[in-house]
């Protein structure tokens, strides 16, 4: 490691005139954490879903751990997912359902938990900056608190933001002059991060190498911490009746060797760079300028971010959330670089007291502008809200006794508004081998088993005449989707061959 690469890791004494009492110093940090919480926590109640995995890979498995029924996707049937995160979510899901029965509490409580977890990024940014100066600490923490991508992903129950909330503190612990205790704790956090999202291992390796580069003995405490975390993960697997880490072997086999993930779409290697430049829009050049200055303060953060993007760029199936770890790494490094401009402005007559407010205001205004500047972000903010509207329609419907999804491949609704829909859920989809071109006839045949249908408005003519349109919303892929209702009760409460889980098995989905 070069001397410049070690700059970030050497604790720096505050410049003259910047030493403050402990209470005053951390009072500002607490204020920034409160600001970040005030922005993030309300978003837990906003029914926005970035990806179905939030429900079907984490919350529904947590719901099933509590003894309830739920949708089972192919990942869980094939055993390629760890039970760690669903086990972690089971407590908040149970608490939320107890406080607000019917599903919404079980949906919101875990989102509040992950929103709070995201505050670790803000605290970490502060401490990285504090190694340089108080101004650097304030700018870095503020940027992490308000940056639109970090705010957007904060309430989503996905492995990427949760794992990032572990890796950033680990990076802080493993840099500077880490003690044995810090190395052990950092290794434990990286061990958990590996279990929660093993694809972040290459980026984590950057910090491991940074910690061991000058003293290989550091690896002993670091490895011990990692092994302790892996032992806990193995215990979780055993408690759920699984062979420890069998899911990891199967996941690599399915997604890396058999390329199963490519069935859900592929993108060229430069896709992440292109999307990042779109989301950052006109601020991209400014960010690059700040990162150039940030390199002298936080080279390993930038290297880890680049390694993470490069690794995921080699995988054909791409989703922006996959590289989420790189976003806070780059934002913190850029914020540290922009704080240098505060020092430069303080040297100019008339700007001595304006440098810090100007730079901080710049981060706030930039984030506010970019949060809705592009179609992509405006679309992201509204993802899932239409489905939530349809779910609410069912939730307040006292006559609802059975639901059929018609012409919809994605089982978004049963777990969307309420994790425990409490009624039979049927699925009628054209690609189902049992349909055999008779989709409309099958719905006619089974219509007495359900009295609500969710279907695209364009397929209304294929539904039984007893069903009439009630509530519509522009759902996923900008398809106008509606709830269709018929009067009367349901004759049966067995889903037969068209129960949603049976259909998913036949579709291998």
Automatic annotation (TrEMBL):
Pfam families with a match to the protein in the record:
Glyco_transf_22
- Regions crossing the membrane: 26-46, 106-128, 135-154, 183-209, 221-250, 270-291, 298-316, 322-342, 354-375
Gene Ontology MF terms: transferase activity
Q: Where is the signal peptide?
A: none
Q: Which domain of life is it from?
A: Bacteria
User: How does the record say this protein sits in the membrane?
Assistant: Multi-pass membrane protein
Protein's recorded name: 4-amino-4-deoxy-L-arabinose transferase
Its taxonomic path starts at: Bacteria, Pseudomonadati, Pseudomonadota, Alphaproteobacteria, Hyphomicrobiales
